[in-house]
Amino acid sequence: MKNKATKMLLNATYLLLLISIIRLITGATDLTSVGTASAALLLSVPIILAGLGGLFSERAGVVNIGLEGMMILGAWAGGFVGSKHGPWLGLIAAVIFGSVGALLHAIATISFGVDHVVSGVAINIMAAGLVRYLSTILYQGGSWPGPSQSPDVNPISVNGLPVLSGGHFFGWQSPDILTPIAEKHWFFISDLIGIIRGVTGDLSYVTLIAVLFIPLSFFVLWKTSFGLRLRSAGEAPVAAESLGVNVYGMKYAGVLISGGLAGLGGGFLAIVAANHYQENQIAGRGYIGLAALLFGNYRPGGILAGAALFGFADALQLRDSASIRALVLLIAAILAYLVYRNIKRGKMVSASISAVMAAASVWFFFAVKELPGQLVTMTPYIATLLVMSLASARLRMPAADGMPYRRGGLR
Amino acid sequence: MKRLPLQKIALALAAPVAAAIVSLLVSSIAVLASHKSPMLAYKTMWEFGTQGGSLMEAVNSATPYYIAAIAIAVTFRAGLFNIGVEGQLRLGALFSAYIGAMFTLPPVLHVLAIFIVAMTIGGLWASIAAYLKVKRGVNEVISTIMLNSLAVGMTSFLFAKYFAVITEGSNNMTTKELPESAWFPDLVPLLTKLGMPEIQGASVNGMLVIAIALGFIFWFVVNRTRFGFELRASGANPIAARVSGVNSKKMTVVALVISGAIAGLSGLPAVLGETHAYNMGFRSGIGFSAIAVALLGRNSAGGMAFSALLFGFLEVSSRALELIDIAPETYVIMQGSILLSSVIAYEVVRRFKLTLQSKELAKAVTA
Question: At the topology level of CATH, where does B49-187+209-328 sit?
Answer without folding.
Answer: ABC transporter involved in vitamin B12 uptake, BtuC (1.10.3470)
